[in-house]
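Page 47, continued from p. 46.
Same chain as before, 176 aa.
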Amino acid sequence: MAIIRSFRDLRAYQQARREAGRIFEVTKTFPKEEKYSLTDQIRRSSRAVKAMGAEAWARRRYPASFACKLTDAIGEANETPSWLDDALDCGYIAVHIDIDTPGSRGQSSTTLRVHSGRGTARQRLGLRRPNCAKVNQNCHISPAQHKVFEAAWQSVGGMIANMILKADDFCGTKKD
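Result:
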């Protein structure tokens, strides 16, 4: 195990920082009316994970305090996908439905309400346009990409949970 000299050396912090940046880029495409609600909330919760990890690192003199702050960070890591679900429900994430009409044999598909987005944020994130080009050229992210965000935040939460389990190691209070 490498020597950790700063909270910035923690893998959980590094991944949370990357994911918060991805959330920021995606939320740039959300509608203006969401600026002080959904956009603000999802950005806040994603950024809070790494901030609480940094604060926990500063409190590692006391394992209970360290673990308590990391527990709060797990809460924020779980809150972020909840806000992503709201974005999905509001149609800011492309949702594909198959329409099976007589004679179509289930081959036609459409996109259920998507809001116009900016391609530049998508390009910076390396997000490919989902198969909704026939209906709407401005999809935000696809349901598959939503699942990637979900998995990333679950991974961050898992790393933090492992830190809690190994609090004595991180705090230097392990008794052999």
